[in-house]
Amino acid sequence: MTARPRDLPSAPGAGVPALAVSGVSHAFGVRKALDDVSLDVPAGSFTALLGPNGAGKTTLFSLVTRLYDNRSGAIHVLGSDVRRQPAAALSRLGVVFQARTLDLELTVLDNLLYHATLHGIGFRAGRHRALELLAQDGIADRASDKVRNLSGGQMRRVEIVRALMHRPRLLLLDEPTVGLDIASRAALVAQVRALVAQEGIGVLWATHIIEEIGPGDRVVVLHRGRVRAEGSYEELLARSGGEDLSAAFLQLVDDAGEAAA
Ligand SMILES: Nc1ncnc2c1ncn2[C@@H]1O[C@H](COP(=O)(O)OP(=O)(O)OP(=O)(O)O)[C@@H](O)[C@H]1O
């Protein structure tokens, strides 16, 4: 059973979703990558964005992070419109991209401090925050090591720590476990679930690996640029009448079945 966030003091804007996407479409030339996509990531939820290759997951992340401009629909981060209030929206957002983006020649700590500086966090406060997060994650002993000398799983954990340096309330992770072995994958999922439970942060976890999703999670199924289903893990199972999420997922992305229907 997935842990739920413990009671947190209600903050201004409590009840506002960490992420709200409404009616968003995006095309690359004639190819439609996203078609009228709407979804929510409630604060304090682990929401899996489940979709096969080419579903549109990375395109959606690129729109939320403003790499691409959303010309249709609206995207709000903690109530701030990413188009009209980009500074407010992006300052509350942490991102772990699919491609690795740490500087391999810098130490773990220097990578974190560099990111802190970009967010206007002073050296002392940045160092304190970095060491605190590394300790929470059990990798404080690697702070002075060059990133080049870490394993793939440790690099990913450092990237998550980096994404948390400025205390975001929404964390986006784009297929973060790609290339990791089973144990590292499980450790990474556990690290992020702990954040949801302890800090009430909203998480959008893009993946095509069904085993990463568990009871208590929210699931959004994306396929060929469209949301095929959204709800709790349990609701998706009940809807499909299946015993496991794999069967439910295969039904939802079955184009042949859809065409026949
Ligand atoms: N820059 C681009 N130019 C043209 N087409 C693109 C571009 N980026 C993505 N696409 C297309 O948009 C669709 C969605 O791609 P996207 O990368 O968002 O999917 P994804 O769900 O992240 O896939 P994956 O799991 O393989 O990373 C695909 O058909 C892809 O080929």
UniProtKB/TrEMBL annotation:
It comes from the Bacteria. Signal peptide: none annotated. It holds the Pfam family ABC_tran. InterPro entries: AAA+_ATPase (IPR003593), ABC_transporter-like_ATP-bd (IPR003439), ABC_transporter-like_CS (IPR017871), ABC_transporter_ATP-binding (IPR050763), ABC_transprt_ATP-bd_su_PQQ (IPR022467), P-loop_NTPase (IPR027417). Residues 19-249 form the ABC transporter domain. Keywords: ATP-binding, Nodulation, Nucleotide-binding, Transport. Belongs to the ABC transporter superfamily. This is ABC transporter ATP-binding protein. It comes from Ancylobacter dichloromethanicus.
